[in-house]
Write a structure and sequence with these properties.
Aminotransferase_I/II_large, four-stranded antiparallel β-sheet, globular
Length: 325
Amino acid sequence: MDDALAIFSAHGGRLAAARAVYGEGDWIDLSTGIAPWAWPVGDLPMGWDRLPEPGEIAALEVAAAQAFGVAEARHVVAVPGTDLAMRLLAPLLDAARPAVIVPGYSGHRAAWPNAEPIFAPIAGREGSPYDLLVLASPANPDGRVTDPAMLRGLSDQTTVIVDEAYADPMPGLAPHGSDRLVILRSFGKFYGLPGVRLGFVIAADALVPRLRATLGDWPISSAAVAIGSAAYRDAVWRRAQQARIDETGVLLDAVLADAGLAVVGRAPLFRLIDCDPASALFAHLAHHAILTRPFADQPTRLRLGLPRGAGALARLAAALEEFVR
């Protein structure tokens, strides 16, 4: 992989680097798997002039618990993004022999650098040699969903951390969090506001107090509390967002099929395609100011998020048609 492409293989969202390498333009960022429609913050009071009150954080956790289907809000802990939450959980759980399911999110390996990689799919079995297992469901980048019942069974013998960052548009495990089944949920991806840096850990009574003590009294900003609380209570917008995601996914599938590109993985917010070499397609799209997500360890794979609107979809279709001609 050349140096220019390697820059974009760590994670998505590197528009400044894309402009530096491929030039200025009206860029379409399909590299992140974040919904391209943001919940409308508008003139919501942000509280920048003060720290959040404990009751306000608790109210946010109640709103999130209701959205996730968690019966008791005390099991839901607001955190400044799930990536940081993983790095806080690692020393709290102190696993002697952790394992991480691959391929998957690079942040899992960063939080547990001594973890043994296990290639998906996994199956529940007796006598697991690992005392902690980390995975995403839906997985990144292929959208793989691991059977929730199997994960609940596996947590009887091993602590399981399930990263459900992409689970908002689909059924998830959140209502089943326990001290042996720890679930992470992200706010920014479904609500299109990753800069808010808001996420949640869903666990039970043994872990939650230790995590709260590690986070301190003000784990998130007043603005994150205000935005998250209002957004999670906005059921009308949530239904509209779900419809936008579903409809745009169908349109994106048609564009990829017209270009003869095989979709080898999918989640509601992204598609994984096979193209050999993917580096050529990545560069071609980048020269058309369309940023996608390559993978250093999967040179034939490219991930695309959902384009926003007919104009972005048409630009992608035209660029793909030019590439395959």
